[in-house]
Amino acid sequence: MIQVLLADDQMLVRAGFRALLDAQPDIEVTGEAADGDQALALVRERRPDLVLMDIRMPVLDGLAATRRITEDPGLDGVRVVMLTTFELDEYVFEAIRSGASGFLVKDTEPDELVRAVRAVVAGDALLSPGVTRRLIAEFAARSKEPAAAAGLADLTEREREVMALVGIGLSNEEIARRLVVSPLTAKTHVSRAMVKLGARDRAQLVVFAYESGLVRPGWLG
Length: 221
Description:
Blueprint: E1 2-7, H1 11-22, E2 27-33, H2 36-46, E3 50-54, H3 62-71, E4 79-84, H4 92-97, E5 102-105, H5 110-121, H6 129-140, H7 157-167, H8 172-179, H9 183-197, H10 202-211
């Protein structure tokens, strides 16, 4: 069973997510938190596979809670997906930089939410490619100027190419079509780049792609 923790200060939001996720045969909601401090305590107690974390919460906000989770070696297996409203929240890219494995807008379709939970636990990240590309373009424009990323020189030319495609929000299948290779080959290149750069997941690989200058805002072809 996939164990999910819900962290949102709106009880109705938590109730809706719980009803949807608990109805799945392979997903179980293991707890709820109304603020980041409660979320952090429950994560340490129950070690869920995934936390659906609202960005804006009292006591301790979602960004701070996510940072504490991802920096704790004892919680290495816990993944965090941020919940956001695209028009209002300006911290999604910073959340990914802080270690979140992805993000979802709160009005995500129910089927997409379920797929997202399963995808992140399976090791994928940066959900909903269309939303991903819009958000990356929006928030990467506010990131720092590119700097040489440690380990970038260790990547092969193909790994750099694949990393750049990950950076513009392409899935393994889309990368495979773009490069005319199999999805398995694309996934292998992504995995090798992650290992060489010490990236926690695909989400952090996107951060490296932008911060190293391999991808710049607007390169969404």
